[in-house]
Amino acid sequence: MLLTLDLNDARPLHEQVAAAIRRAIGEGRYAQGDRLPPARDLAAALGINPNTVLRALRELRDEGLLEFRRGRGVSVAARADARTLLRERARELLDEAQRYGYGREDLIAILEELA
Fold first, then answer.
1. CB-based burial, 72-110: b 16+ in 10 Å, e otherwise
2. Domain definitions of the chain by residue range
């Protein structure tokens, strides 16, 4: 699993990790039943604390995307629906707009211009 984090992103790291995994599931890089790498391996690859990865995994478990099985690790329970992915991307777009000094209303105006 190739995940990347944006160090300039204001969101907490666990939210970024959860978003990256959610996106990978939604895009089909992981199918239902596929096992994810161990949290320690993900943490080492990302250069973050394993507890941060575990927090992201628990969040996704609570959403119903992942399931934890003792002795078998973490696997994909369901595919993320399009609305969930779209919400995540919209959240990322809003965060990006705020970094450039644009607010929510500015972003809405830009989207309305495109429609």
1. eebebbebbeeebbeebeeebeeeeeeeeeeeeeebeee
2. 13-81
Max CA distance (Å), the chain = 52
Q: What is the C-alpha R_g of the chain? A: 16
C-alpha closest to that of 58 among 9, 106, 17, 109 = 17
Q: Which two tokens stand for residue 25?
A: 């599931």
Q: How many CA atoms lie within 13 A of 70 on its CB side?
A: 0
Which ranges in the chain belong to alpha helices (H)? Answer: 13-26, 39-46, 50-63, 82-99, 104-114
Q: Which fold has domain 13-81?
A: Arc Repressor Mutant, subunit A (1.10.10)
Give the tokens for residue 20: 């990256």
pLDDT tens digit string along 88-104?
788 888 888 888 999 98
Prediction pTM value: 0.71
> What's the rounded Cα separation, in Å, for the pair 41 and 49?
10
d(CA 54, CA 107): 33
